[in-house]
Amino acid sequence: MDLLILQTVALGRAHGHAIARSIERRSDEVLQVGHGSLYPALQRLLKLGLIIAEDGISENNRKARFYRLTAKGRKQLFTEASEWQRLSDAIARILAPVAEENP
Questions:
Q1: How far apart are CA 99 and CA 91, in angstroms?
Q2: What is the C-alpha separation between 59 and 86, in angstroms, rounded?
Q3: Fewer Cβ atoms within 10 A, N terminus or C terminus of the chain?
Q4: Residue 102, CB half-sphere, CA atoms under 13 Å: how many?
Q5: Cα dihedral angle (2, 41, 71, 26), rounded to 10 degrees?
Q6: Are 19 and 37 in contact (CB under 8 A)?
């Protein structure tokens, strides 16, 4: 969840609902983001200094808290995305069909 949030706010500041919708939309609705997992993750990222929060007004003219990436968060995003890609590539190699060997 942390990596997905960091990637989403790297695109620009966003409030919680917009972050959740962006993740859902960009995953073609495969990933569903519940508030019970989103907001604790946002609090964790705030505490780590990877994102910052600013109060503002949403597109619906309501008070909202907007999140954006910090320089530390950008570095963490690069590190985590690189590690995820390495892990994903390794799993893809294992799952790829293998030609049967002749005994």
A1: 17
A2: 38
A3: C
A4: 0
A5: 50
A6: no
Single-letter amino acid, residue 60: N
3-state secondary structure of 78: helix
Instruction: State residue 98's pLDDT score.
Output: 75
Share of the chain above pLDDT 90, in %: 85
**Bridge partners (DSSP) listed for residue 56:** 64
- Condensed to tens digits (0 to 9), the pLDDT of residues 62-101 reads 899 999 999 999 999 999 999 999 999 999 999 988 766 5
Closest CA to 1 of 47, 39, 57: 39
Half-sphere CA count of 9, side-chain side, radius 13 A:
31
